[in-house]
Write a structure and sequence with these properties.
Chain lengths: 296, 245
């Protein structure tokens, strides 16, 4: 455990020294402030909104940015040390490969979580004071689920870092992975539905698209207004049908968890927990397995 | 009682390239073993298997009679052929990171840095160090915690005569302390005054091993370098004979 902590400390120290942590915190602060101010432009409002509205506006930003930052952080964790040959000195010093990987992963998680939490904490306090909103629940849900999303993708990045031989290769794989989970997954899911079950394809395509697509944000805000109850019912009905699809992709799962209660989107807890456990444990387990079989 | 360190039929391939062909070698505690051989003979591969950097193929490595494990390596010191450290971090920070991994106190690192003459530049970033200084820092790191086995891969490369003398003295002191030393080198004249035993690897095969005194007596040569060249020639001639036969 001591060795793991030493590696975690070194990893976090390196990120702090390189300016990554500060830059990330500033990005988050700026992003949250801007989305809180201008998040409702689509329905004609400008100004700091309450927690629930800020969360609805932030969903797209978090689902794009957090996996990207996490993958950019994770892809580099091991492959860079292997290229620089410092990893050999660590392993030769009696550190098991599993411990080395765990230390690097936890260090990466800390480097991602620290600015994320700091940014959300400061922005959350400002929103609470400015909008005089005490219903902090949705904001906390988004903070925790966003953090979980980040940790999952640091794990995926670590896996890529173990499998790739060079930093460039790992970076390309990380960007490809990001494109797949954020953009291509929905298309692949819809294509699969069409191929496997063409009779219900039209309904499923519509459902999957509405639950995950960027433009559904306006629909979500409309659901808050209560002016169009049918919109909320439609979203809820569709989201229930695509729950199984969402569990495959942590980005969509994050989105489903954070959709406002008024839309009645329900992801079964067992599905949520098992998906998160699989997405965290799977890549890390595979990374340890591969790393133990890799010559340095 | 068995040997301190034993390589038993150790084999290692890189794809179709055979790097080690069933190496059998025993090292007693306190020996200074000079591992000799041309480039590509398998010296670094042997060290890599010992240190857990490479997966061994067939065979096994035993330490005090039991299969070598990661926990044993806490008591090893390793100086790679090309020392790689964190260039943005200082001498002290680099040393402290590796010392902490081995559970060594900062005072131990301070002692070793003073020993290799780098304590005065402990605040200097590693990227500003010369090759000789980098080599000494690597040595200080490997010496932290008074390891019972020191594995040094080409430690004499690129050192000026003064640094070479200093390194030889440190290795002599370590040997007197009771540490076991495995040293691979092409600078045979530098290891000769220190070595108690010699192993010669050619094309992944251990072609000669034993106490230096016995080898000298057997080959009727006075210098280790002459013994090495003689063994290499004999092996080469035997290989040619096999081809023509």
């Amino acid at each position: 455990m001591r060795q793991v902590l030493v590696i975690v400390g070194k990893e976090f120290g390196d990120r702090l020294r390189s300016g990554w942590v500060i830059a990330c915190a500033l990005v988050w602060l700026g992003a949250i402030a801007l989305t809180s101010l201008f998040g409702l432009v689509q329905i004609g409002r400008i100004g700091i909104q309450g927690y629930d509205r800020t969360v609805a506006s932030l969903l797209n930003l978090v689902q794009y940015l957090v996996p990207l930052l996490a993958l950019l952080l994770g892809h580099d964790l091991l492959v860079s040390e292997r290229e620089e040959r410092t990893l050999a000195l660590i392993i030769a010093g009696g550190v098991t490969r599993a411990r080395a990987l765990l230390g690097k992963f936890l260090g990466g998680c800390l480097a991602l979580a620290f600015p994320l939490v700091l940014g959300l904490l400061i922005a959350g306090t400002i929103i609470g004071l400015s909008a005089k909103d005490k219903a902090v629940g949705p904001f906390l849900t988004m903070a925790f689920s966003g953090l979980g999303l980040g940790l999952i993708f640091v794990g995926v990045g670590s896996l890529l870092s173990v499998f790739c031989r060079t930093r460039v290769q790992a970076l390309v794989c990380a960007l490809l992975a990001w494109c797949i989970v954020v953009f291509a997954f929905d298309l692949i899911a819809m294509g699969t539905v069409v191929i496997v079950d063409s009779t219900r394809a039209a309904r499923e395509i519509e459902a999957a698209t509405d639950a995950t697509h960027v433009t559904s944000i306006a629909e979500t805000h409309n659901a808050f207004e209560g002016a169009d109850d049918s919109a909320a019912r439609i979203v809820a009905e569709r989201s229930r049908r695509v729950a199984a699809w969402l569990a495959i992709n942590p980005v969509d799962l994050f989105r489903a968890v954070n959709l406002p209660k008024s839309t009645n989107v329900a992801v079964p807890p067992w599905l949520l927990v098992s998906s998160v456990v699989l997405w965290l444990g799977g890549p890390l387990g595979m990374a340890v397995w591969k790393f133990r079989r890799t010559d340095l | 009682m068995g040997a301190f360190l034993q390589f038993k039929s150790l084999a290692k391939n890189y794809g179709r390239v055979v790097a080690l062909r069933g190496v059998d070698l025993s090292v007693e505690r306190g020996q200074v073993l000079a591992l000799l051989g041309p480039n590509g003979a398998g010296k670094s591969t042997l060290f890599g298997c010992l240190l857990g950097l490479l997966r061994q193929g067939r065979g096994e490595i035993l330490l005090d009679g039991s299969c070598i494990a990661d926990s044993h390596r806490l008591h090893f010191g390793y100086l790679p052929e090309r020392i790689a450290l964190y260039p943005q971090r200082s001498v002290w920070e680099n040393g402290l990171f590796f010392a902490r991994l081995k559970n060594c106190a900062p005072t131990e690192l301070e002692r070793q840095l003073k020993r290799v003459g780098l304590y005065a530049v402990a605040d200097r970033p590693v990227r500003q160090l010369s090759k000789g200084m980098l080599q000494r820092l690597g040595l200080a790191i490997s010496l932290c915690g008074e390891p019972e086995l020191l594995v040094l891969d080409e430690p004499f490369n690129g050192l000026d005569p003064a640094l070479l003398d200093g390194l030889q003295q440190i290795l002599r002191d370590e040997s007197e302390r009771g540490a076991t030393l495995l040293v691979s080198t092409h600078t045979i004249s530098a290891i000769e005054p220190l070595a108690t035993h010699v192993a010669i690897l050619l094309e992944g095969e251990l072609v000669e091993s034993g106490a230096l005194d016995q080898l000298r007596a057997a080959h009727k040569n006075t210098s280790l370098e002459a013994i090495y060249h003689c063994v290499a020639r004999e092996k080469s001639a035997a290989a040619k004979e096999q081809v023509f036969a």
